[in-house]
């Protein structure tokens, strides 16, 4: 693509350089304008430019990159082979290349070859070439300095803009920090409230645990068999005394009462329990176990503190002594 552009527009000797000013391709003979640098090998075009060309070439490259257009300098005087050559310099950005960026063409066009320094002496009316070269280098240096000043001014404006943005960001960060500080205080307050609530809940748990212990001890000390059933007549809880009436073990919890073998001669327990749930009326009946011990069985609805029916409670009070005393009285009355 680069060679095509050269052929169509210039057909002059030149080089193709990248964004770092490094030569990546030579077109034609360029030894009149470029020379191999002394010391470390380098393909940087500014390092290879001959005396009298370097300053203008640097200015042209900088302007071409900055303005993104072709830059031309005419009648540049460069030293070559002991003499001075007059050339035109053209720097053209290759905007046609879309796959890569920063490529430029640097073209050289000879206009006049002066006599060598060893030849005829210049006429008095002519200006000293050395002075002309110094003046051109001075002009190039001034242009380069002006460009540098403009770049510094641009950089200064960008720095001011960046500083304003940083100040804005800093203000936002300060605002965010204040919000975070406020959130931290709110979280601390919420944490203190949670600690208070947790303490209250722990106290309630301790109270409930103490009440549960009291109830367990009360039920155990009375030796009244008590069994708690849910609304589906599954076992929720029972007291130790109940094991004298039913063959219960700890794994029987949540099992239906109908699955448990009873030691009493009474087969209406499930039916009566359902009736109590339906009617909410307590039922009391005397039953006898297989060892002829008598119990007063009472079936009552289980009510919560909110007066919600959550099952039934069956209690068994041992009345064997009462029954035997009554039997003894009846026998004594016969005789």
TrEMBL record:
<dbReference type="InterPro" id="IPR000700">
    <property type="entry name" value="PAS-assoc_C"/>
</dbReference>
<dbReference type="InterPro" id="IPR035965">
    <property type="entry name" value="PAS-like_dom_sf"/>
</dbReference>
<feature type="coiled-coil region">
    <location>
        <begin position="131"/>
        <end position="221"/>
    </location>
</feature>
<keyword id="KW-0175">Coiled coil</keyword>
<protein>
    <submittedName>
        <fullName>Chemotaxis protein CheR</fullName>
    </submittedName>
</protein>
<dbReference type="Pfam" id="PF13596">
    <property type="entry name" value="PAS_10"/>
</dbReference>
<feature type="domain" description="PAC">
    <location>
        <begin position="278"/>
        <end position="331"/>
    </location>
</feature>
<dbReference type="InterPro" id="IPR050903">
    <property type="entry name" value="Bact_Chemotaxis_MeTrfase"/>
</dbReference>
